[in-house]
């Protein structure tokens, strides 16, 4: 005959099978106990649940009681057989108490509770073993309830291993030595009354304790909380703000910490949640209208609780935060200084560091946080990046920074010697760099550079140069006295310069060679002496039918 049982009935059978098995293993046999007491305890009924008084008479099998010294009751026995082998067994009443202390439906923790008791005895700590069974079972049940509730949750599996002295497998009850060991691991997961009432500090501390968040800074007025997991952001902060990073189910929490948002050392970037102590009181405070704040340097977001930038439309301004919390300012200066130092060593941080930008806003100075050695490393890094750039010099921001902030920059060191066109236009120069080694260059431009003189022939590729354009500078004399050596020069473009002298004799040499155009504007002639102007006009009119195109 077959019987069909439901799931609840099956669980009950499992529980009863486990309990019965353990009872047979760890509860004293009534017959052994009866023989040890000469029948004094034979199937007697005790009023009000009283347990048998302690003490043994002589018996064929040696039975030694383990007694609770506070009430004199036996809680277990050491039974030694004829061969001298000893075993600790429990009283039936104590075993029932242990079963009752196990909160699991299948009574999965009964064995562990017994093992803890036996371990204390084995370690010679009889008093602790007795206290555990006589006094601590209610606490054991409480902590086992928490363990049963969280042991399969991801938060516990990832956070509990960060607790001090956590076992290798935090979800395996057999790996906990005793109730104190269990408590030390599950403590952050115990919901206090404050947690149930939505207490902010209790929730924050829970994630701090399990290593899912950090308390980065705290003083008497404010603290800085750094969530490291989405749950540690969503759970305590979800009701307090509208940032996308604290919204459950959102991928923004992780995406803002990786990829282009990584820190200079390659680690994930951090969120800084600023919480004034006023938010932890039971009374509503006006700070809750704008706080908490969340800062994220890498994405340039300094937002209030409504997700509005405090560098923009928010009613709260960064200056207000700095003024109110001076300790916070010092914390951020130190933190930003460390980040800037890493960035400068490893990249272009010295010229466009986002961290230096915020360091300055918090009243810091690059010289206060960066050593001479780091500064030199930063410059070296920028030089490397400048040399790796392709394309127009004007777009090489690294080279531009070097030119503006360091001495002895040789622009041509960052150019390919085989280039045919060199364009230095719009770069801040006082003189054109030496281009004589660019033997393939046929065109050189240096417009709007601040040049005060034309480059000497010794700085030009005189055998290949065909077009030289030097417009919109501060040149006062042209062409150069040796320009007659530029046999291949076809166009000399030099308009919009405050010319005071034009060397007509050199123009005559160039026009007899290859030059077809000397380009200036009429206004460029206004500063010439009358004699020089007459010489130039005469040369311009009398070109001997060479087909020369003078003027503009």
Features:
552 residues, 3 domains, 16 strands, rod-shaped, Leucine-rich repeat, LRR (right-handed beta-alpha superhelix), alpha/beta, 5-stranded antiparallel beta sheet, 21 helices, disordered C terminus, disordered N terminus, 6-stranded parallel beta sheet
β-strand percent reads 5-15%
Radius of gyration: 43 Å
Class of secondary structure makeup: alpha/beta
Shape: rod-shaped
Number of structural units classed as domains = 3
* Poorly predicted tracts of residues: 1-5, 42-49, 192-197, 545-552
- For the termini, the CA-CA separation is 116 Å
The major beta sheet can be summarized as: 6 strands, parallel
How are the strands ordered across the major sheet? Answer: 9-10-11-13-15-16
Q: Please count the beta strands (DSSP E, at least 2 residues each).
A: 16
Mean pLDDT: 83
Number of helices: 21
Percent helix range:
25-40%
How would you describe this structure to a colleague?
- This protein is an alpha/beta fold.
- The protein has three domains: 15-189, no CATH class; 193-324, no CATH class; 416-550, Leucine-rich repeat, LRR (right-handed beta-alpha superhelix).
- It is built from 21 helices and 16 strands.
- The protein has helices at 7-26, 30-36, 92-101, 110-122, 126-134, 137-150, 154-159, 179-186, 193-196, 200-209, 230-237, 252-255, 318-324, 326-346, 349-352, 354-361, 366-369, 372-388, 397-405, 504-512, 530-541, and strands spanning 62-68, 73-80, 86-90, 213-218, 222-227, 272-276, 293-296, 301-303, 421-423, 443-445, 467-469, 477-478, 491-493, 501-502, 517-519, 549-550.
- The chain has a six-stranded parallel beta sheet with strand order 9-10-11-13-15-16, with no helix packed on it.
- A hairpin with a 4-residue loop joins strand 1 and strand 2 (73-80).
- Helix 3 (92-101) packs parallel to helix 6 (137-150), helix 4 runs antiparallel to helix 5 (126-134) and helix 14 packs antiparallel against helix 16.
- The longest helix has 21 residues, at 326-346.
């Amino acid at each position: 005959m077959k019987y069909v049982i439901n799931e609840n009935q099956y669980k009950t059978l499992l529980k009863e099978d486990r309990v019965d098995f353990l009872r047979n293993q760890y509860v004293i046999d009534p017959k052994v106990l009866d023989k040890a007491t000469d029948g004094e305890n034979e199937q007697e009924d005790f009023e009000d649940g009283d347990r048998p008084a302690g003490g043994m008479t002589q018996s064929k099998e040696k039975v030694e009681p383990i007694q609770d010294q506070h009430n004199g009751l036996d809680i277990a026995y050491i039974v030694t057989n004829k061969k001298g082998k000893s075993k600790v067994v429990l009283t039936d009443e104590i075993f029932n108490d242990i079963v009752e202390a196990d909160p699991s439906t299948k009574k999965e923790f009964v064995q562990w509770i017994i093992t803890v008791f036996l371990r204390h005895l084995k370690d010679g700590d009889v008093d602790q073993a007795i206290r555990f069974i006589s006094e601590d079972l209610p606490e054991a049940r409480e902590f086992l309830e928490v363990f049963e509730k969280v042991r399969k949750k991801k938060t516990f599996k990832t956070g509990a291993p960060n607790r001090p002295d956590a076992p290798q497998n935090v979800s395996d009850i057999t790996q906990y030595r005793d109730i104190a060991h269990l408590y030390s691991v599950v403590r952050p997961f115990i919901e206090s009354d404050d947690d149930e009432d939505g207490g902010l500090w209790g929730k924050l501390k829970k994630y701090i304790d399990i290593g899912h968040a950090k308390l980065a800074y705290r003083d008497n007025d404010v603290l800085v909380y750094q969530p490291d997991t989405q749950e540690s952001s969503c759970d305590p902060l979800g009701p307090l703000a509208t940032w996308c990073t604290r919204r459950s189910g959102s991928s923004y929490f992780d995406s803002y910490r990786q990829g282009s948002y990584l820190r200079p050392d390659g680690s994930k970037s951090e969120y800084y949640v600023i919480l004034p102590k006023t938010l932890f009181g039971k009374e509503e405070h006006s700070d809750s209208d704008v706080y908490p704040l969340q800062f994220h340097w890498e994405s340039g977001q300094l937002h209030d609780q409504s997700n509005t930038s405090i560098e923009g439309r928010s009613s709260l301004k960064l200056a207000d935060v700095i003024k109110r919390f001076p300790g916070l300012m010092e914390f951020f200066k130190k933190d930003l200084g460390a980040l800037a130092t890493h960035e400068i060593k490893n990249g272009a941080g010295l010229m466009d560091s986002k961290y230096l930008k915020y360091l300055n806003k918090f009243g810091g100075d690059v010289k206060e946080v960066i050593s001479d050695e780091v500064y030199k490393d930063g410059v070296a890094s920028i030089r490397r990046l400048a040399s790796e750039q392709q394309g127009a010099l004007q777009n090489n921001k690294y080279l531009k920074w070097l030119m503006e902030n360091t001495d002895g920059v040789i622009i041509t060191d960052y150019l390919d010697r085989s280039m045919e066109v060199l364009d230095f236009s719009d770069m801040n120069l006082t003189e054109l760099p030496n281009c004589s080694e660019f033997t393939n260059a046929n065109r050189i431009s240096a417009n709007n550079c601040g040049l005060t003189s034309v480059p000497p022939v010794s700085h030009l590729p005189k055998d290949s140069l065909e077009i030289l354009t030097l417009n919109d500078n501060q040149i006062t004399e042209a062409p150069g006295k040796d320009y007659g050596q530029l046999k291949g020069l076809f166009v000399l473009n030099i308009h919009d310069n405050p010319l005071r002298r034009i060397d007509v004799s050199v123009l005559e040499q160039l026009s007899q060679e290859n030059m077809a155009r000397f380009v200036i504007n009429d206004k460029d002639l206004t500063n010439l002496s009358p004699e020089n102007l007459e010489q130039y006009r005469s040369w311009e009119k009398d070109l001997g039918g060479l087909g020369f195109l003078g003027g503009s």
